[in-house]
């Protein structure tokens, strides 16, 4: 194989592929990236056997087609360190030569036949299609609420739940619940699956044009994303999370009798200020609604106290004091894209709800303030 690559395009592709590669494994080929040059396209592929990624680079000149299997971290370091506009990649047995104008590197690799298979989108039945920008918004509004390492394995991912052309993504870590709703096309019937957070982080990184179309294929134990339909479109494959997602609809309160609307950035700023004097032992912020005013306060032993006032002209209901983890509220306010949010409350020991119309619902459990 011998190809001349645009370095910037190669670097973007290599950086994305390294997001799949595992850093520690007893199987060396899983730390590698497979490069295939053919038909005017350089295709990069990597997998950790749970998530696989294929993407192509068209900004190349192929002098000799072929394949290579090269350690991903060294390839990334070299491409990142070079400042040449183009780089020449040439294989010699299982090694690869990387040449710039004034530099030459030789990396020892492996037989490309040893590389695990990373599938493309050919033969995948399309479950639905969705604009990339819409998918990115749905993922961003839920991914942050998914559990990181939970014994209930099913909540270590995000639920994709589609009814005809209505799609909703749901995530929870047991202390909060995020639901984002949107629309898709070419969706028939219903489908439901739980997608790992690693795959969804990569999906968000792969989307650079919100106008492009993402095709989704859902199979028995895998989901496949094709981002765009050009020859260099990225294809991400992921195993699904096993288990049943908890009955989240039962958690959403339906009897809230206190409501207030705030500008999201203004509220987020006030909560951040009130949270400045919190620590691990006392990390709750008290929200006191009284006489069209919200008073946010916090107190930490041996540290001090904070109090921030914010007009709450649109508050409806009786006075109420309730405590929340401030980070959990700010997390939600960061993903609503500005504008107004409605907060719904019931009692100090009942969950609160943050909404933006019908598109986003966020349920958060209160904390006990001493």
What does this structure look like?
The protein is an alpha+beta fold and about 375 residues long. Helix content is about 15%, strand content about 40%. It folds into three domains: about 1-115, DNA Polymerase III, Chain A, domain 2 (Roll), CATH 3.10.150; about 130-250, DNA Polymerase III, subunit A, domain 2 (DNA Polymerase III, Chain A, domain 2, Roll); about 250-365, DNA Polymerase III, subunit A, domain 2 (DNA Polymerase III, Chain A, domain 2, Roll), CATH 3.10.150.10. It has six helices and 25 strands. The strands form four sheets. The chain has an eight-stranded antiparallel β-sheet with strand order 6-2-3-4-17-16-15-10. A hairpin with a 6-residue loop joins strand 16 (about 220-225) and strand 17.
Mind sketching the topology for me?
Blueprint: E1 2-6, H1 7-18, E2 32-38, E3 41-47, E4 51-57, E5 60-64, E6 66-71, H2 72-81, E7 86-92, E8 95-99, E9 104-108, E10 128-131, H3 132-143, E11 157-163, E12 166-172, E13 176-183, E14 190-196, H4 197-206, E15 213-218, E16 222-227, E17 234-239, E18 258-263, H5 264-274, E19 285-290, E20 293-300, E21 304-311, E22 320-324, H6 326-334, E23 340-345, E24 352-356, E25 360-364
Antiparallel strand pairs: 1-5, 1-7, 2-3, 2-6, 3-4, 4-17, 7-8, 8-9, 10-15, 11-12, 11-14, 12-13, 13-25, 15-16, 16-17, 18-23, 19-20, 19-22, 20-21, 23-24, 24-25
Helix pairs in contact: 1-2, 3-4, 5-6
Estimate what percentage of residues fall within beta strands. 35-45%
* Strand order within the widest beta sheet: 6-2-3-4-17-16-15-10
Please give the alpha-carbon distance between the first and last residues.
Answer: 68 Å
Q: From the coordinates shown, what is the CATH architecture of the largest domain?
A: Roll
CATH fold-type name of the largest domain: DNA Polymerase III, Chain A, domain 2
CATH homologous superfamily heading of the largest domain = DNA Polymerase III, subunit A, domain 2
User: How many domains in all?
Assistant: 3
What overall geometry do the principal axes of the alpha carbons give?
A: elongated
E-strand count? 25
**Largest beta sheet, briefly?**
8 strands, antiparallel
> What is the CATH level 1 assignment of the largest domain?
Alpha Beta
Count of alpha and pi helical runs: 6
- The assigned structural class equals alpha+beta
Helix content: 10-25%
In the predicted model, the low-confidence regions spanning at least 5 consecutive residues are none
Whole-number radius of gyration?
25 Å
Mean pLDDT: 93
